[in-house]
Sequence to fold (967 residues):
Amino acid sequence: MSEFNKAQHVAGRVYDLVRQKHSAASICRRPSHGSNVRGVKISVLFPLPTQKWNDQTAAHLLNRGAFGGTPGEIEAARKKGLGAMVHELVDANTDAVNVPPPAWAHPQNIRAQRVEINAAKDQGQNSREKAREVHMMETENILDLRCWWLERMMTGQAPLLEKMTLFWHGHFATSVQKVKDAYWMWLQNDTLRRNALGNFATLVRKMSRDPAMMIYLDLHQSRKEHPNENWARELMELFTVGIGNYTEEDVRASARAFTGYRIDYTTQQFRFAPKQQDLGPKTFMGHTWPLNGDNIIDILFQRPACAEFIGRKLWRFFVEDEPSQEIVDDIAGRVRAHNFEMRPLLREIFSSAEFYSERVIQTQIKSPVQYVVQASKLLETALPPPTVTQNAMRQMGQVLFAPMNVKGWDGGKAWITTSTLLFRYNFANYLINGDTMLRHGAPARIENPDPGFRQSVVQRQQLANQIKRDPIDISKFVPNELRDRPRDLVDLLSRRFFQSRPSEREGNTFVQFLESRNPDTSDETMRELVHLMMSTPQFQLA
Amino acid sequence: MLGAAATWTLPVFLEKTFVTLDAMAADTLTQTVTGKDGTILIVVQMAGGNDGLNTVVPYADDAYYRVRPRLGLLADKILKIDNYCGLNGKLTGLKSLFDEGHVAIVHGVGYPNPDRSHFRSTEIWQTGSDSNRNEANGWLGRYFDNCCSGVDPTVGVAIGDEMPQAFSAKSPTGVTFSRPEQFLWRLSEPEKGYRSAEEDFFRQLNGSDEESAAGVTDGAAIGALSAKTKSNLSTMDFLQRTALDAQLSSDKILAIARKYKSSVSYPQGHLGSSLNIIARMIAGGLPTRVYYATQGGFDTHAGQMNAHERLMGNFNEAVNAFVADLKQQGNFERVLLMTFSEFGRRVAENANGGTDHGAAAPMFVLGGAVKPGLFGKYPSLVDLDHGDLKFNTDFRSVYGTLLDRWLKAPSEKVLGRKFRALAIV
Fold:
């Protein structure tokens, strides 16, 4: 037994005694649809009647539980049936967590770099030069990691697993800008994926030992004499119970309990330093014991606010921005009843009539991640080149592994400003037409050139290579026989891009556009139609 | 900074010159511009951590030359302000402006428990939070949320690729672009002569064709049509209104950019071109209260001497041109420019002829209506905190003063509490 385990074991045993006294009230029966969940409340989630399973509801499940489907995928889902589809998303492909890491993602890699830098320092060489090299490598690695993940979202066999991993990344927001290490970012991503559909309490415990998280919230520097409150506070405010459900005294006690957490720079893993642990008694949420970090987490998971907090957040992520209190209560009851296991909860959400209600379908603003992945799928094309993707994500406001702050992404309306909306419209142009859209523009004539713009021929060539992309093959989803039948063509493409018929006004506009081009039914005109369709408020919704 | 270190910014991506723009439909400026009178704040971020000691130099302090044997700037090159400190020799324009009585220098600005990470300290400055608290929204975003709801989206304009965190808000507002030519919808096949037809269809789809825009765009600011705050709108209504806002803002910004040129010559470089764009937007009467511009490259860990001199020179020329431009326009009195950096640098130079991350540093506040002079106390060069200067003015005192006295917005609502006001304006 390691030192840490021993310490945890002792404190844990003490704490078990407390827990037995308090936990009886929180044990609930496992609910089924329509049953009493909290003793008095009647569930508001009922199963979706079978006859309501159709192209629209199937498309909705793929939009929210995955990254959207092509018309072919939607049809296949409808044929499989609701139960089978939910099973496929939630329960199948359990092997998908064992994804092979990117080639560079192994602990010895970074270790070797550190050894080299230190050796260079010792020999009085210019360690800055070496550090710069490492920095360049890290920059490339994180770029690679971003595209590696997007690729899994787009083509992987377990899209819900990836979507839940994305949910947890936003929940446990951690930025490489502070962590400065692509390996640790990958390691955290791997931990999130392995626990994405598992138990939330387990995941919180794992995050408290996750090197990237520890660095991001200064946990690895917290000492007995100077407990750092960053992790201790955010654990409550952002990860478990939410603001208003703890006191400043709780923050201080929590900070003392989470001492002794360190990173072993040989293995690049968590290490426990017993000498740094504060084993003195602390009062946390009414419990006074020599509590350790895991005890704090256990106590937090006993609070009703915890189930409500994560239940609301999940519902907001998958269903709607502003759930009613009834729904929040229902979901919170289910979270507790399932003891914070995600799979049964997600099964119930995705099977419920509430999830497919009219006020929910096609009302969620696509996140930039969803936008890029879903647009690429719908255009039957590959993701754009890495540097373009990364820049585009930045301009749309969602850079994977670099959320702007510890609170993650707000989502919903916060994705859309005049600038990001225009950017989405223009990015659609690039996705469809490739770099031809750039070639057609007049060469840059800038009145006050930025030094960064005066690139040498070589740099310009490199840039051209980085953004190179061919126009999409429009014949993959625009059949020749419909090209001169505007109304039918618009209906077909609307099903693909909006998963529904367009409003009469929009539909007419698309038809008028085609008629204005008559008799031109070239690929270019078809691509322009698609660009127009994607340059609408409607296409921003899923 | 890792993550932000893309090998190129995205100018090529959405770039279009005025030559092609002018071939487009005629000037479609439909707004009665109302940006002719209110006060305007320009925020200039010196990204990377500007070396305050070599910006406002304590030339009369022996301690300065003791810890900076290589980087210490010689007293005879300093533009002396008083018998203790003076401006970096490159800041000639700023010095003249100071002598004219248009510059306030606030010494030793910082915050308690300073963080020496670029990322974190930038976040603290951008959100105005305490260093032990995390705050999601930016201080300017909270100003937009609290004091500007339902106004024109161009109330905040950031020049750059990415919205600064200072702008992030509950209901995000404000416009971000690197150059005005980028801030428009780009057609698929501009060479085929279909241009205007396709754009008409686009405008129909986004509610800014004449038919659907009629009635809502009459009168003053665009935002008047968002009388309901955005958070109360259905998602679809919200998207449609933002789409319309985007179109109208784009039209307006392009029309102004096309119409107003500066006769003043700006220096090359990012800050110069950003301030040039801003000056043109001000001349055109864009109803903007806050503009945001950035100068990068201040993270001078090695070989600082030349790099920092160049940065100072560039800053000086850009600001000089900007001020001359504003004076020519007759707008200098209603514009105030504030600089900040995430931290100053370590007092002692390092072994690589550079300086490492530090803490407190001076801020410049300048403009026609600024109350000039030196504010706060120059921090001691010997009584240090881990080798860094101790702050004596909280940066939120500066923010609060500018909110209360310049933007006429209640600073307490934006910053969460009242900070000591400074007599800088």
User: Anything to note?
Assistant: The mean pLDDT of chain B is 85. The radius of gyration of chain B is 22 Å. The CA atoms of residues 147 and 409 of chain B lie 7 Å apart. The first helix of chain B runs from residue 11 to 14.
